[in-house]
Each structure stands twice: as structure tokens, then as C-alpha cells.
Amino acid sequence: MKKLAFAFVMCLAAMSANAQVLTSETVNNVYEEVSNKANGKFYYNAERTGNNITAMYVYQNTGNGKGNVSLKPHRKYEYDYAADGTLKARVTYCWNASNNKWERAARHAYTLDNNTYFAEYSRYNHKDEIFDQPIDKMVYKLHAKDSVNHVITYHRDDPSDPFRKISDTAVNEPFYLFARK
């Protein structure tokens, strides 16, 4: 649920801009939004290189809620950017309290090619210590005026299965989905 909530926040932040692709600005805006509106259940910290957030840490407050704050590591997100500032990948880590370390869980990879934007989701294979092939993929066809005009969503239950089309949506209204390049 938290993965979905964070992805939703990323999309909401991106939708608020006249945009084409996810960028370091989008990640910065999401961090500012979630860290400034923390309700006390989660706390956030970030590492930066220049203006780019390269890692975001999420801590869960396990305190009693009466002013007692006790933070437990919860999630870590690492970001990788192209030279132009567009987001190439986001890797999600979960805290393993038994081993007292961060463990890879998933990766979102983003590519832009000929006015088509691809977003892919892969799970981490702990046995083989690699990311599996993507199980979810979204394909966005972009207008020349920085808006999405077509979105196709694909899913497969297993990385070796073929993708199944889940949805195919034409966007008739100007709908700005990504952050400005």
C-alpha cells in the first residue's frame, strides 16, 4: 500500500506541472510535499548531490503518539538521473530489521523515445541478486505541446509471461502528467 501511495504522490506532483517527463525537479517537489506535511506517522530525510535528491529515507514513527517519537527505518528510495535531469530510475529498498540493513525490493525505470515515454516496474530477485524483467509497463504517447494524449498499461504476473494489455486510454482533454524538462 505504501508503494502505491508513494507512486500516487509522484503522479500527483507530476500532474501539477505542464510537463513531459519526470525530472529531478519532480523528485524535489515530491520530497518537499511529503516532508512538509508529515502527519507524525512517517518522517523523511534526503541526500542530495547539488540540487538533485539522490536518496530519500522514510522512517516510521513507532512512538505512542503523545509527543514520544521513536523512528524505525521503513523505506529508502535511490534516484538516478540522465545528464539533462530526467529521471532514469528509482530503486526502492525495504528495511530488514533482522539483518539491520536496507534490502532492494523494486525498481522503476523511465525512458523517453520519439515522443513516447515508458515507465516500467521490476521486482528484485533476492535469490539471483538481480532485478527481474518488468512485470508492469505504462506507455505514454506525448503531444508536441507537452501533454499526454494516449496511455497504455500492461501487466504480467510472472517476468517470463507475455505482457497483457490492461488499459488503453485516449486522452481527449489536455492533461499534463509529467514535470517540465
Report on the architecture of this protein:
This protein is mainly β and 181 residues long. It is 15% helix and 50% strand. It contains two helices and ten strands; from the N terminus they run ααββββββββββ. Strands 1, 2, 3, 4, 5, 6, 7, 8, 9 and 10 form a ten-stranded antiparallel beta sheet that branches. A hairpin with a 4-residue loop joins strand 4 and strand 5. Helix 1 packs across helix 2. It is globular. The protein starts with a helix and ends in a 6-residue tail after the last strand. The N terminus and C terminus are likely disordered.
Outline, from the CA principal axes?
globular
**Helix content estimate:** 10-25%
- Main sheet overview: 10 strands, antiparallel
Total count of strands: 10
The oligomerization state is single chain
Q: How many alpha or pi helices? A: 2
Overall average residue pLDDT? 81
Distance between the termini: 29 Å
Q: Mind telling me the C-alpha Rg?
A: 17 Å
Task: Note the beta-strand portion.
Answer: over 45%
Question: What structural class results from the helix and strand content?
Answer: mainly beta
Q: Which spans of ≥5 residues are poorly predicted at pLDDT below 50?
A: 1-20, 175-181
Order of helices and strands, N to C? HHEEEEEEEEEE
